[in-house]
Amino acid sequence: MSLRNKLDEVWFQGASLGLIGLTVTAVLAVVYDMTKAAIAAAAERDTQQSLEQVLPAGFADNNLLKDIVVMPEGPLGAPLTVYRARKQGQVKAALFEIAGKGYGGPVSMVMAIDREGTILGVRITHHIETPGLGDKIEEAKTPWIHSFDGKSLEKPVPARWGVKKDGGEFDQFAGATITPRAVVATVRKGLDYFAAHRSELLGEDNAGVKP
């Protein structure tokens, strides 16, 4: 094969690969445009369901996803989206997601706190804890997560905000203390954040950014 033929072959192969790459990119772009709305809608439904789970039935009459405030700095330092639950126009509770470090990795949860600083509900939204041990934090596995209902910074007293192994009020799991310990500490951190930013979270001043 002559040098010219070899160059032509290399050029053809390169052009073919480039054309294939452009075609694949174009197809992926079209698929993304076709599915992004459905993906966004699914994510919105998941968020709505998570928020509704931590509120008592009939507690709010507003669209939680549309009534938000974005705090420039949340409990973990990053901006925090806070959802406000209203009843007949009055803000009754603040809902937000917060995360702590469990045994296997991050444990994310959503919590709702009423105007008086009392927990209405907490639910785990994501974790990678050990099946059969740490995953007992899920409501579907045990009712343990309901231990936080009705709790506040004063109930129990600060010294009792921990698992029983540490002298606290909350149960730990046999063979898995790190996970419930992390959840208790994270919920307490959420209460501390609410207490420190209560007026902003309830919309009683102009802090944050409300769409």
Description:
- With 211 residues, this protein is an alpha+beta fold.
- Residues 207-211 have low confidence and may be disordered.
- The protein has helices at residues 3-53, 178-196, 198-201; strands at 68-71, 80-87, 90-101, 106-114, 119-126.
- The protein is built from 3 helices and 5 strands; from the N terminus they run αβββββαα.
- The chain has one domain.
Strand order in the largest sheet: 1-2-3-4-5
The backbone outline, from C-alpha atoms, is globular
Which value, in Å, is the CA radius of gyration? 24 Å
Taking all residues together, what is the mean pLDDT?
A: 87
Largest sheet: 5 strands, antiparallel
Q: Count every helix, treating DSSP H or I runs of 4 or more residues as helices.
A: 3
Work out the strand percent. 15-25%
Q: What keyword list fits this structure?
A:
about 20% strand; about 210 residues; 3 helices; alpha+beta; five-stranded antiparallel sheet
In short:
Belongs to the RnfG family. This protein has 211 residues and is an alpha+beta fold. Helix content is 35%, strand content 19%.
List the helices and strands and how they pair.
Blueprint: H1 3-53, E1 68-71, E2 80-87, E3 90-101, E4 106-114, E5 119-126, H2 178-196, H3 198-201
Antiparallel strand pairs: 1-2, 2-3, 3-4, 4-5
